[in-house]
Amino acid sequence: MTTGAARLARCEGVIRWVRTTGTGHPVAYLHGLGCSSLASWAETAARLGRPGLFVDLVGHGLSDRPATFGHSLPEQADAVAAALTASGRAPVDLLAHSLGGSVAVVLADRYPHLLRSLVLVEPGLDPAPVGPGHPAAQDEEDLARGGWERLLEQEDPERRAEVRTADPLALVRGARAVTDALGGTLNDVLLRTRVPTLLVAGQRDYERWQDLRAAGIRCERVTDGGHAVMREQPGWFHRLVEDFTAGAGAPATAAPPHPPSASGHLGAFDGLRDVLARSWPLFGEDAPDPATVRHRLRAALGVPVRPTVAEADLTVHQRWTRDGLEGAEVSWDAGFGPRVRGRVLRPAGRTGPLPGALFLHCHGGIKSFGLDKLADGADGRPVHDLLVPVRDTLYGGRAPAEDLARRGFHVLVHDGFGWGSRRTPLSALPARSTGQAAAELAVRHARGERPDEAATYDLHAGPAEDAVAKALGVLGTSWAGMLAREDLLALELLAADPGVAAGGVGVLGLSGGGARAAITAALAREEERLAGTVGAVVVAAMVATLEEVLPEHLHCHTWALMTPGLGRVADWPQIVAAGVPTPLLVQFAARDALFPAAGADRARQVLAAAYATAPGSFRGTVHDVPHSFGRAQQDEAHDWLARHLPAGPSTAQPDVSPPGGHP
C-alpha cells in the first residue's frame, strides 16, 4: 500500500490517494460527504481483489484542506481528474458513493477518457430541500463558534468519528453542492455521458429514473436498501460490479450511452445516409488521388488570401534566456484584427541554423489561451492556473514545445484564429451564446464561485463557436479555413527565419492541433511559394474514419475540424495523407474516448495504402493511453522529426540573427 498526491490547479494544496495492488483492471473509489475512500470501500476492494486507487476528495481524508477551495462539483471533479492522471492508472472503473457519485457524474462529462466505466451508488442527482438542521444550511462563520460541534452531534455515533476528520468547510459546501445538483441540471449531465454507467439505488428515489434507463444507463434498485448499499449488501454488490465492469471492457456488449438512432448513422430519418451516398461521393468512395483531395479541401474550407512575409511585419518584443532555452516574444499582422502572438524557442548557446518545427496548439476546451498551452515565457511559469490541468492531462505535465526546443529544434508556437490574442472579445460575442453563458454563470455564482476573466471567457467560447461558425459559413469560409490561413502564414514566417535550416520544417500537434498540422501540410503542397516548406508531419490522437465518428463521437469535436461538406472532400485519413510523400507519423491513442477504435483501425489501413508509393515515409503507432500526447509520444515525435528534417551544419557556425530575427 502506497500513497500519492497531485497538485490542485486553482489553489495551494494537493489531492491524495492510497494505491493498493491486485490483479485485473484498476478500480478507483470515491467516498461520500464527510468520509474517506479507504474507510468506505475497503470491504468492496478486498472482495474485488483488483488494483485499487482510493482517492480522498479535497477537504476529506488524506487530502489537503485549502481555505480558498470552493468544494463545488466541477472543482472536485477537476481535482479527481488530476489524481487519476497523475496516478498513471487511468482509465479506471470508478466506484463512487453519494457526494462522490455526484462528483463522478461531472468527472465523466469533463474527462471521459479517464474512465472505463462508472458505478454510482446513491449519488445526489436531484435538487433537495434544505431544512434548518441540514449541513447545507449552516452559516460558515458560525462553524468556529459552536456550529461544527452542533453538526457533529446530529451525526450517527458510528459515523461521527469519521466525519470529525473532515474539514468543516468541506462538509458544509459539499452538502450545498449535492443538494443544489448543479442547479438541477446534474441529471442532464448524466444523461449525455459516454461512459458505460451503472446506477445503484438504495433508499433514494430518482425523479428521472426512467429517462436514465432509456438513455442506456443500467439502473439497479435494492429492495429495502439503505444509503451505503456496498456495505449493507456486500456479496450482491460485488457480483453486480464484477458483472458490469467485465462488460465495460467489451464495447460491443456494453450498454449504449444513448438510445440508438433510427438510421444508425446520423440520428435522423431512416436511410438518409444512403440517400446522401447516392447523391455525391461520400467519405472518399470515389477514391480521389491526393491532388484531388487537396483541391477539394481548399474549396471546402474556404481558405482566404493572406499577407506575404513582408506584409506580416514580424516584430520581436522581448528576448530571454532561461532553463537551457533562448526565447523571443514576437507578433505579426494577419491582415485584420489584433496582431498574432507568437513565441520562438531554441536551445541556449546553439548558433547556426537548426531544424525548424511549427508546433500547433490543441483546442483543449480552453480558448482564452492558445500558444501558452505549449510553452511559457521569460519567467518559466504558466500564465494561468487553467493551463496546469491541460498540460497534466494532455501533455504529460510538460510544456511540450520547450522540450522539443531543448532537443535541438528551432520552434515556433502561435495563437490560432479564435484563441488567445486572436480571440473574439467578450463584448463582441453574439447574444445567443452570451445568454447561454450567463445561465451557467448564474449557477456558479449561486454556488459561491467567482470565475475570473479567463474562465468566464471559456464559458462563453463554447456556445459562441457555433455562432461564429455560422457567420464564417455565410462569408464563404470556416473555422478550419481561417485556422489554415493563419497556420500557413506562420509556416512561411518560420521557414524564412535565418535560424532555421533550409529544406523543410516539421509541423506537429495534438488533437485539433494535429488536424491543423495535417491540413497545413496538405495545403502547403498546393502553393508554389510554399513548395518544400514542410519536411515532416506528426498528427497525435486525431485520426479515425468519418463514418465511425458519426453520430456519437461527432459532437465531441470542434468546428475547427467538422467543417460542413468535409465528407464530400474525402474520408478524414485520406485528407491526412494528402501531403504524400511528405514523411508522416500518426499516433493513435488506444483509449481515446473521442475516436472509436474501429474507425482508428480502418484509418491505419487507409493511411498505409495512401503511402504505399512512398516506402518508409509513413508510420502509424498505437499507444495505450487516453486522448493525449504524453511523454513517450513526444519522444517518438522528436525522433521522427530529427530523422526526416535537415539538421543544418553540425559544426559551430558564425552567429545568426536571434530567434525571430528575420526581417
Automatic annotation (TrEMBL):
Instruction: Give the AB hydrolase-1 domain ranges.
Output: 26-175
Q: What molecular functions are annotated in GO for this chain?
A: hydrolase activity
Look up the domain of life of the source: Bacteria
Keyword field: Hydrolase
* Pfam families documented for this protein: Abhydrolase_1 (PF00561)
| The name this protein goes by in its record | Alpha/beta fold hydrolase
Q: Name its species.
A: Kineococcus halophytocola
